[in-house]
Amino acid sequence: MWWIALVVIAIVAFILFLILVPINIWFRALVSGAPVSMARLVGMRLRKVKVAMIVEAYITGKKAGLEVDIATLETHYMAKGDVIKVVNALISAHSANIELSIQTAMAIDLAGRDVLNAVKVSVNPKVISTPMISAIAKDGIELRSKAMVTVRANIARLIGGAGEETIIARVGEGIVTTIGSAATHKQVLENPDSISKTVLTKGLDSGTAFEILSIDIADVDVGRNIGAQLQMDQAEADKRIAQATAEERRALAVAQEQEMKAKTQEMRAMVVAAEAEVPKALAEALKSGRIGVMDYYNMLNIQADTDMRKSFSPDQPTVTKPDGDKK
What is the pTM for the complete model shown? Predict the structure, then answer.
């Protein structure tokens, strides 16, 4: 019965062999001219690597004439990289005679950038459209412009280089600076290419993952007269300041007038109080003998005469000459 056990063991071993060793993948790699050892395939299966995808990428690279190692592709896959995209990027760069090593391609992919798209942009430059940018010339006229920036990917600066947002921001800054330094808005309208020429000389692509090939001004529109608007706002502000100052002065004058009225009323009250004391003082003087009765009557006569003269005489007396003329 030992031979039955031997047959069972052989069947189990054969089944395990079929499970662990992807014969079809091994055979396809062999006939494709990119052979892979069975031990490598078994190890990849045990490490839970997608064997079919790795071998397919390996075969594609070998057929394209690349010097790739299947162990390197497996390592990149285990590092959560996109093996297919890296191989396709290497094939595109090799076909376009662009220098790109597999280590650089894997580093770009692991950095989160699309390495295949970067190679495509390096071969076929892309156009980045900026939003409508508003700037003001020295004469106070607002100009709104839109630029089309043609860029090419710089493979050497993809790792750590700034992206499209930085390019757009720098181009916008250059447009604002160029328009703002123009003496009049008419100069910009007559020569819109002066904006692109000035911006290109600033080296805006330094530190970015792109190389700026050209900057074309697609549209320039005339906006508001900011200078006139500012003057109107300043005049309105000056008017409000003048009104506030006048109101303050009026309030101060009213306060002074009220203060003078209060002082006048206070003086009148003091005079009335003093006049109320005069009869008492006269009575005391008569009683003490400091003045006589005739003195008192003479004083009354003088006061009555004075009141009569005031009632009949004008404020400015007139003098009549002997010839009848008035002076």
Answer: 0.55
